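Minutes, methods subgroup
Present: GH (chair), OT, SY

1. OT presented the first of two proteins processed in the latest run. Sequence and structure tokens recorded below as shown on screen.
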Amino acid sequence: MAIATINPFTGKTEQEFEAHSEAEVEQRIAAAQAAFETLRDTTFAQRAEWMRAAAQLMEDDIETLARIITIEMGRPIVGARAEVLKSAKGLRYYADMAEEFLSAEHLTDPSVVGATQAGTRYAPIGIVLAVMPWNYPFWQVLRFAGPALMAGNTGLLKHASNVPQAAIYLDTLFERAGFPVGAFHSLLIPASRVEKVLRDSRVKAATLTGSEPAGRSLAAIAGSEVKHVVLELGGSDPFIVMPSADVERAATVAVTARNQNNGQSCIAAKRFIVHADVYDEFTRLFAEKVAALSVGDPLDESTDVGPIATESGRDELAEQVADAVSHGATVLAGGSAPDRDGWFYTPTVLAGITPAMRLHLEEAFGPVATVYRVDSREEAIRVANGTTFGLSSAVWSTDADEQDWFVRHLDAGAVFINGMTASYPELPFGGVKDSGVGRELAAVGIREFCNLQTVWKA
């Protein structure tokens, strides 16, 4: 894929960029290593000052950054502004919390190990390579970069090739805020050149958010080099609605849970598993609300759903829906790509999904929802857990015992009760099964790229 901004609303190439040469990549790795030697010896207070400055820079640049998001990947402008603000909030959170999260721990009675003092400390490990996707071009990166830099590490970013302007902004953000030169840089390189960077001995670990094949490839390389990875991969999250649920509220939230960011989110609810007692009511409300969404120019403040980020992504979605319909699925809303410029797909609701259909097991990365009818909570769990994914989940029920039962039985990295999945700096984020390994965010996220060092003193 060329490194270029291609506006998904028009399909036109806005700007192309030259890939960094091997010499430029080497310079950036060397700068990151030099910056690490400086940053590791700075105080948390100093790093926090710089991190808050980075957050302020983003807030000052909010209109420019929101427009970059919208032009490069098609997110409606209102949501794009929200992403910028969320990113700045995440940076401030780690500026406030890093020292507490990484504080040393000591044995109350060190004499049991023959010492006068013994315990553990969290030490930075060095350069971490981040391979990041286009769907949240700032938030995905900064929820890694904030904790990594606050821990004393440095970062190299290989961003998706269709969001180069976001990568270029992030390339200088932390230096502008006061961090040492080289503390965080972008590498404008194709995916084919990632392996060489990861195998460089100065790069100590990697994190990737993206597809399952990309995650497997990166993990295999890292494994052969004995390097730590955190992977946040695909998802096909279940959204379970039980008879005791507030059905009207569940249907309203379901629309946002599936269609925010044009449906292009790993943690979007994708499979709606509804008990027979409320199935008709829920599907009627859900389909009506989905059909009412405004589809159009993502720079228009009133647009709910913009274009799919890439032409290939739009075509893949259309093929998945066509396959489902050819095998008997019922279209309750949408179901086609509109005849217009840009890479649009009409928000869609499909019912009657069977294992014969691709959408039964594949992730739909766009505004397409599948609805399943079940007769019991046990059947709901079988459907919910019946994929290779296990990122997040949502359960709608007002029965406390039933809520606890679903929490115990769902194979997912998170369970949201009577709400939609979202990522928060305060809570760990990640999945199980083919949805990834490791966690981002909260205390556990900043510790992922630290050396838990045991210290023993006689």
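2. SY then presented the second protein from the same run.
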Amino acid sequence: MTELSGPRVAPANGGPADALVVFLHGYGADGSDLIGLSEFFARALPGAAFVAPDAPGQMGMGGREWFPLTMRDPSEYRRGVAVAAPILQRFLDAELERHGLGNDRLALVGFSQGTMMALEVAYRRAERIAAVVGFSGALANTDPDALKPAPTLLVHGTADEVLPASMTEIAARALVAADVPVAFHMVPGLGHGIDQSGLTMAVNHLHQNLG
């Protein structure tokens, strides 16, 4: 059975965690790619613990993948998240138990392929989670059945050359139709990445829902 691990950051206030923020990295990266963002989130959430699991798939040059990409089309995305989701769900269960927290104190922050994973698992937990942030991603599974809504922020650069910004617009429409509260923001001229404006919005979103 595949078990995930990755870098962790303890609460900035030195006490027991009162929330858990999980960063989900993109294709070809690993947990170390996003864990540094904890510095910014900790300013608003000093009691939060942070973890950035390495995806289960091993690639060349040390990169990781949540699922393989060959055709890079919607059917591949949907199959991929379905296979990887149970692995990530087990990891989330274990991390919450480790800190003695419930789903209502959990937030997921994804980038690119990590956003696909966040949007797959967030609304299908046993109980509703606190918040979701997705950067430069897409909704791989558009099936709206039995979703547990969580406040969601989606951010995408208009110049994204990897996953077009239209994918966030499509995701937002599908999630709203499934009664998920969604706000989305397009960053003019930004490519496939995270800028300061998006990061600020994400920190505010988590502070509103976890603070």
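Chair's summary of item 2: The chain has a mean pLDDT of 95.
Next meeting: continue with the remaining queue.
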